[in-house]
Design brief:
This protein has 184 residues and is mostly helical. It has one domain: Four Helix Bundle (Hemerythrin (Met), subunit A) (Up-down Bundle), CATH 1.20.120. Helices cover 81% and strands 0% of the residues.
Length: 184
């Protein structure tokens, strides 16, 4: 694997997101919420951009296929753990999001280990449910940081929809994973 294949634009965006995870966390812990929000929004933007760039410029790589979900899940887990500890999102939502992210990474890791160099063609792609869930989770983080301790009916509704979507997409990944496992 050459350095050029690893360091394409899409992968650089993914690496940037990985770097922004601890930046977000440190800023949030030190109560620099405006800066933490900017770091989170920048990281979320790289999530949207890296996939677009990889598809548009045909620069998808096995490195990106592995690092992108790790970066995504790391960002979500850092945000939901931070927000849950602060009390800005319900603890049940933090636990649900972190559990789903660990579950998805575990399934992906197991599938990659089973592949043993056979490529990534039959791994489950990101489903519509996964994309909607990611958008809802990121929106919830942004709104929670903007609101701080304040909340209301609209935020509670957003939390409920995010929780339902998170649970459904977790179930969706499990069923896809089992289908792939049963085909081996």
């Amino acid at each position: 694997m050459s350095l050029q294949s690893v360091m394409n634009i899409a992968n650089v965006l993914t690496f940037a997101r990985m770097v922004l995870v601890p930046v977000f966390t440190v800023l949030f812990v030190h109560e620099r919420y405006d800066a933490a929000l900017l770091a989170f929004v920048a990281a979320a933007a790289t999530d949207a951009l890296d996939g677009f760039v990889a598809r548009r410029y045909h620069s998808a790589s096995s490195t990106g296929a592995v690092l992108d979900p790790v970066a995504d899940k790391s960002l979500n887990m850092a945000a939901y753990i931070s927000l849950g500890i602060k009390g800005w999102v319900p603890v049940f939502l933090s636990v649900l999001v972190v559990a789903r992210e660990v579950l998805v990474l575990t399934i992906l890791g197991f599938l990659l280990l089973r592949r043993r160099g056979r490529g990534f063609g039959d791994l489950p792609g990101v489903s519509l449910a996964g994309k909607v869930t990611t958008a809802l989770q990121m929106t919830t983080v942004i709104v929670a940081i903007l609101l701080g301790e304040a909340s209301g009916t609209a935020f509670s509704a957003l939390v409920a929809v995010t929780a339902l979507s998170t649970a459904y997409s977790g179930y969706d990944y499990i069923t896809k994973g089992f289908k792939i496992f049963s085909g081996w």
